[in-house]
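Mods, move this if it's the wrong board.
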Amino acid sequence: MRRSAPTLALRLAVAGLTGLTACTTPDTRPPPAPAGLTAQAGSATSVHVMWNAAADQDGVTGYQVFQADRLVRELPAEKTMVDITDLAPQTGYAFTVRAEDAAGNLSGPAPAARVTTPAAKAEDRTAPSSPAATTARATGPRPARVTWTAATDDTGVTAYDIYQGGVRIHTAGPGESATTLANLRPDTVYTFTVRARDGADNSSPDGPAVDVTTPPASGDGPGTAPAEFAATASPGTVTLTWTAPDTGGETTEYELYVNGLPTTVIQFGAGAVPSGRAEHRITVAEPAGTVWAVKLRARLPDGNWGSFSAERRITLVA
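Not the wrong board. Structure tokens:
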């Protein structure tokens, strides 16, 4: 049967709906300017620029970093710090940052952060000493306060770098001995270390590692990360110990990560679930000297995985 052509009224109705769809108001509202902008000289020729992450509701998709009025870096939204290199020694610089949203709207510039690079030190190959002591405490679900003792260097310390999981997440000035880290995750264990750096970009070894557990956000309930996690290597074996999180019942499954990858699920059968401290031994075949970074998380009663324990680095032995 041959279909008849649409009526004139139907064609007009469809055209009217199409016209309404095409009249969507474009997004022209810019996001707010980034807050908390700082600039810290890391060496005679580099500056570390940092700012606070935008709130989710701002819809920020990236940042533009300016030195004076010149665009020097473009970064995705998840990056809130950058090293600006190839600068001149003993020179003043001003940096600012603008946020960009998905529609291409740019915020106004953040208030400029000003910094002067130190003098260059010729043929400096000696790294500073490590900070001798580190302490840290959570000051809420998202911020933590980290403190350290001063390091020494033959030409002078120019910066302190804070690392988490082997990644630099913050840089503080040479006269500082404490800093507040923001934008952390609630109910999460972090392991922080501090390194000192001199004007030639020589970095010290890590200072002592310190664990911080951020509390759950309001209404999130008790923490879900295994506590007091420890890993010990012995010939052919790695022994893991931890305290089970308060999940409201017996915790029978834990997922083990080695060097950032899920490796196995540790299961405790009925009647074998440990109370208090838990222990698990792993037989290893990798050669002595292999370095493992290990952490684990518990299966919650709702079937989801909880937060990770602290990460421990161990060296396998023969």
